[in-house]
Specification:
Largest sheet: 6 strands, parallel
Low-confidence stretches: 1-5, 8-32
Oligomer: single chain
Bound molecules: pyrazine-2-carboxylic acid, zinc ion
Number of strands: 12
Order of helices and strands: EEHEHHEHEHHEEEEHEHEHEHH
CATH architecture of the largest domain: 3-Layer(aba) Sandwich
Helix content: 25-40%
Structural class: alpha/beta
CATH superfamily of the largest domain: Isochorismatase-like
Shape: elongated
Distance between the termini: 35 Å
Mean pLDDT: 91
Strand order of the largest sheet: 9-6-5-10-11-12
Strand content: 15-25%
Radius of gyration: 24 Å
Length: 369
């Protein structure tokens, strides 16, 4: 797909008052024409939003640009708090003179606008393995009583309808002597600060191992043992061509909820370099378990600076309160929670969320400081 996009305003809107920053202020145009030079497009975009033609974008004109940028495929304009617009404006007004000039706009165009209208989106399907669906860590036996198998159909639908740049499947992949298995408790010493003793420890309790290093650990039934049936991806899950499998939790002494790093952040998985190689901008995360591995992965994606989208109806979890906490943490770091029906338009750059634009702007600021 090689459609070209540029943003412009309606003609005849040279002057406008505050109350004209409204629904009619900006429009956007899609060109299915990739013969237009990119610098021409960039210049056209700048000129279109420089409504007073003074060669600078002021805050008002930038507000208008945001209204053109942050809308969905149905033309709905997302409201963005003035404070947030101002925060973003400050990022692009590098010399802080109150205007974004053409040179500053070049940075804005290359690092922000282009990524918002043409994101590089990857799909990260977390741990859709037999043990979490009908095996030893069957989620329907956990407190939220959710059915992990229900994620398969919506995930398969996304895989067959949305063109992701790359699809990753993670697998929880434990050795038999893994630290998270409750029946392995006698293999390691607990620290004196552990509130729960080895004798009284029950499934899902959290204990503290002596290490070194000292390590908090939740206890699970034996699950996802390497090469066992329970560790296999569910047979109905569609595996697409050229996708990449990521194995985690492979060391005996440390657990790994996130697909990025182990829980101690000692070693990163191959996902980290794969994402860099592919210049990924956006990560869509879903799978099992919502409040454990999916949550930890989404949070690490955000911490790593990626625009992160958690797909609610493609995820099932252990505990309702923890699922709610996961959502709040994702939202607090400018990630978004969506339904799978919204994904295609987002991947194709037709539904552009302000939270993700804000996230990217804040990352650009952090990286230039
Ligand atoms: C998971 C518990 C233990 C997960 C992995 O994939 O969410 N949960 N190990
Ligand atoms: Zn595990």
């Amino acid at each position: 797909m090689c459609t070209t996009v540029y943003l412009r305003t309606r003609p005849g809107m040279a002057d406008f008052e505050d109350d004209e920053i409204n629904e009619n202020c900006c429009d956007y145009v899609w060109f299915d024409d990739n013969t237009i030079e990119e610098t021409t497009q960039m210049d056209a975009c700048f000129t279109a939003f420089d409504k007073d033609g003074d060669g600078f974008l002021n805050l008002k004109e930038f507000t208008c640009l945001c209204r053109a940028l942050f809308r969905n495929d149905k033309g709905k304009i997302y409201t963005v708090e003035p404070k947030r617009i101002n925060d973003m404006f400050q990022v692009f007004d590098k010399n802080q003179d109150g205007y974004v000039d053409r040179q500053e706009f070049q940075f804005c165009w290359n690092n922000w606008i282009k990524k918002i209208v043409r994101p590089v989106s990857v799909f990260l399907i977390v741990d859709v393995q037999n043990d979490f669906i009908s095996g030893s860590l069957n989620l329907s036996h956990c407190s939220a009583r959710q059915d992990g198998g229900e994620v398969i159909e919506p995930i398969n639908k996304l895989l067959s309808t949305v063109e992701f740049h790359t699809v990753f499947y993670s697998l929880d992949w434990h050795p038999t002597d893994h630290v998270s298995f409750i029946d392995n408790l006698p293999m390691r010493k607990l620290h004196s600060s552990s509130k729960v003793s080895a004798e009284e420890a029950k499934m899902y309790d959290t204990v503290i191992f002596e290490g070194p290093p000292l390590m908090k650990q939740r206890l699970w039934p034996r699950h996802c043992v390497q090469d066992s049936w329970g560790a296999e991806l569910h047979k109905d899950l569609k595996i697409v061509e050229n996708s990449i499998k990521i194995y985690k939790g492979t060391y005996p002494d440390v657990d790994s909820y996130s697909v990025f790093w182990d829980n101690k952040k000692l070693t990163e998985t191959t996902l980290v370099s794969e994402l860099q190689n592919k210049n990924a901008t956006d990560i869509y995360v879903c799978g099992l378990a919502y409040d454990v591995c999916v949550g930890a992965t989404a949070i690490d994606a955000l911490t790593s600076g990626y625009r992160t989208i958690l797909i609610d109806d493609c995820s099932r979890g252990v505990d309702l309160k923890d699922i709610e906490k996961t959502k709040q943490t994702v939202i607090a770091d400018n990630g978004v929670i969506v339904e799978s029906s919204q994904v295609k338009a987002m991947v194709e750059g037709r539904d552009r969320r302000p939270e993700l634009g804000y996230k990217l702007a804040m990352e650009l600021k952090a990286n230039s400081a």
